[in-house]
Amino acid sequence: MNSQNGFLLSFIKYGENDAVLHCFTEEDGFQTYFVKGIYSKRNKKKALLQPLSMLSFTINPTRGNGIPSVSRFELVKSHDMYMDIKANTVIFFISDFLNQVLRHENKNPGLFFSIDQFIDELNGKNYQCHLLFLITILKIQGVAPLITDGPYLDPETGTFSMVSTHHLFTEEISAIWKTALYSDNLYTTKIPNALRKDFLDSLLVYYHYHITDFKIPTSLEVIQQIFE
User: Fold this and answer.
1) Helices 171-182 and 196-210, interaxial angle, to 10°?
2) CB 99 within 8 A of CB 11
């Protein structure tokens, strides 16, 4: 058996009492685990199945290409943010987002640390941190925009230019991108409430151009409504 820390990205009930978990782990990147009996009436551990909770798993050895099974798991960190409706909405959106874009990600300590840092920001009631976290992912993946002269970000080339190439990437939205990219701590970047929806839309457009097979998260509508 071996122990593994990981962030829970999604979980699916399997049969009457079992579940399949998708996690991003510290040692092995994206992993799928099978948990037996988690939904049985006597099992209190199902309360720990919260998106983006950091869990410590004890993994049984596998034979062949089967899904590794979990013999036990424990909560590593406890947060109050799951009781906050805004924070909870952000958590579901980001877990949905990461469950898609990290499917083929191997061990990546920088990315694992950045998820932990994002959760700390959200726990501190930084309700715009999810927008800036998406830029952090782009930087870690090596596809963030290059800072060049010009007031408009071109989402296709990932450079700034003197002329606008996309209606969402106005001078105001492009300036937020540039400020975040320049910042030593991008979570200090201020995004005016009136621009948050357009900024999120610009992020999704950029991901479409630079992340293979990217699809709009199903939870997008919910997060847009909660922050209107």
Assistant:
1) 70
2) no
CA distances from 69 to 1, 35, 58, 112, 159 (A): 10, 6, 9, 22, 45
| Threshold 0.90, pTM exceeds | yes
Using alpha carbons only, how large is the chain's radius of gyration in Å? 19
Q: Which amino acid is at 168?
A: L
Cα three-residue angle 78-48-32, rounded to 5 degrees:
115
For residues 185 and 88, give the distance between their C-alpha atoms in angstroms, rounded to a whole number. 24
- Which of 94, 102, 96, 91 is CA-nearest to residue 24? 102
| C-alpha to C-alpha distance for 91 and 106, rounded to whole angstroms | 22
The answer to whether the CB of 176 falls within 8 A of the CB of 164 is no
Per-residue pLDDT of the chain (228 residues; tens, 9 = 90+): 588 999 999 999 999 999 999 999 999 999 999 999 999 988 888 889 999 999 999 998 777 778 899 999 999 987 888 889 999 999 999 999 999 999 999 999 999 999 999 999 999 999 999 999 999 999 999 999 999 999 999 999 999 999 999 999 999 999 999 999 999 999 999 999 999 999 999 999 999 999 999 999 888 988 888 776
